[in-house]
Amino acid sequence: MLNISLDDEAERYLIEILKREEITINDLIKQLLRNRLNIAHPQKTILERMGGMPQHLLYIGGLSDRDKRREIISARLQARHQASS
C-alpha cells in the first residue's frame, strides 16, 4: 500500500478525472504507470520481434503492382512444378 499527499490543485484534478472516466483510483494509477512505462520502453513491433524484414522479399522490386506479383508467383509455381516432375 502506498500513501501519497496531493496539494489541493492535484486533488481537484484527480477527483475530476475519476468522475469523468468513471474508474477507481487504483485503475487510474495502473493506466498512468503502464502508459509511462510504454513511453519509456516502447514495445517492439511484430517485425522487430520476428527478427526484422525478411531479406528474401527485399530484392524483388515492383511488388506493389498486382500484375508483377502474379508474374512472380506464376514463375515460382511453374518452377516448383517442373522441379517436382
Would you kindly provide a written description of the structure presented here, covering whatever features stand out?
This protein is mainly alpha-helical. Helix content is 62%, strand content 0%. It has helices at 8-21, 25-40, 46-49, 66-84.
Task: Summarize the SSE layout with pairings.
Layout: H1 8-21, H2 25-40, H3 46-49, H4 66-84
Please tell me the total number of domains.
Answer: 2
Query: How many beta-strand runs?
Result: 0
- Secondary structure: helix percent: 55-70%
The main β sheet shows up as: none
Quote the beta fraction.
under 5%
Mean pLDDT rating = 86
Order of helices and strands: HHHH
SS content category: mainly alpha
Number of distinct helices: 4
User: Low-confidence spans: pLDDT under 50, at least 5 residues?
Assistant: none
Features:
85 residues, mainly alpha, 2 domains, 4 helices, 0% strand, rod-shaped
What does this entry show, briefly?
With 85 residues, the protein is mainly alpha-helical.
